[in-house]
# Entry
Amino acid sequence: MYEVQEFSIIILYLMIGLILAFVLVKISQLLAFQTPDIEKLSQYECGFQHISDIYSPLDLHFFRVCILFLIFDVELSLLFPFSFFLDVYEPDWYVRISLLIFTFFLALSFYYETWEEMLDWTRPYKAM
Amino acid sequence: MLKNSSITIFRYSISFLISLIFIIYIFFFSNILYNLQKILYTILTQGYLEDVIEFFATFLPIFISVIYFTHSERKVQAAIQRRRGPNVISFWGLLQPFADGVKLLFKETIYPHQAGAFLFFAAPMLTFGLSLVNWSVVPMSFNGPASDPEFSLLVVYAVSSFGVYGIFLAGWASNSRYSFFGAIRAIIQLISYEIAMGFVYVILSINLRTLRLSDIVSRQEEHWNILPFFPLAFIYLVTMLAETNRAPFDLPESEGELVAGYNLEYTSFVFSLFFLGEYSNMLLMSSLMSILFLGGWLPLFGISSNFSIFWLAFKIVFFAYLYILIRSVYPRLRYDQLMYLCWNIFLPYLLIELSLSLIIDH
# Structure
């Protein structure tokens, strides 16, 4: 079931990829002529100097989608191993029924979310 | 004063002891850290020269196919717009991508003085490294991939969801307004479509009772998955366009509003790491599409050959061409349409299909 060998190969791929990227960037920095000046190193802007900070307030829809993503992602990580369970257990009706109840409540809460027009991006954010 | 200091010392010592006990507990009893130690130990002690050689044997063809994918994109778009395209360097401009790579290697590496240096350089390296990790579990032929764990679909999903961090760090660290807004758009788009992608994986794995990619291919010998799972295949096709920030979903890089999106401040080879990572992800998505739904290396017209990678390569090239065709044909969506498509159309359908696949045995 659990193979350390496979994981070590995946981690080895990640390590070699990161090292390769670092080496390539270093080679490019060594090869090219570096002539920095103050205009070149300034922030990109269309012809004028910016006056405010970049970290301006955002639309609340983005944060709402982030929170929804957390719920759904936890749910997905719960659902992934069920392919093994359905394969291993022979009378698997209780696995199926528990998953169905779980999916039903998720769908219900998601329907409530859309009914409250929380996912409607066309209109501005409405306070509860 | 004295009493206070003694109390603080007492508190510190108590918290120190508790943390010490906790750390000892973690190190001796936690399975995860034990396994991590084991993995690192096996990497460091055993000879992994063969795997390093195998890495470069997979990396070099991917690298060459990625740079020729960019070249073919320019050529096909030129043909659709009735232009010539790159045709100066060697025959039909075939050496153009190499010339571009060498040019980018010799350009000056700029990082703006307001940017955070470490994260600014870490972000493209992370994108590039993570785009190569997934190729270790994708099977290309009967022989299987470099590492074939029992849950390679989960590994693919996890690594491709890590790809958000590269974009997020790039937009945050370059400290520019355009790249910040591009990164915000890209993050929300990626995490929304990631859920649709995860549901597609889960429904497939529940129906086929496996998470291993080579098993998924071998279970399609009677008929390909695109016949029983047709709407899922269509959803995956749309999702793979949105996951790689391609047209018609290229809101993060829309040239009219944000000049280039999250990779605005990047120059020279640091930029080309982003470029290579994105195009490698596109090829990965098209190969996953052909493995999950179009039968992988299984032959097309019953013409099986010993040269088994041919059919998989044929399908991958078909989807890579579809990427270019869709980019040059379709206009860009609005952002609310993009979000409506994911949350209000795909997700309810996927929830219904999940419950249906639990009720009805496949």
In short: Chain B touches chain A through 85 residues (CB under 8 Å). Residues 134 and 158 of chain B are 10 Å apart (CA to CA). The two ends of chain B are 74 Å apart (CA to CA). The mean pLDDT of chain B is 82.
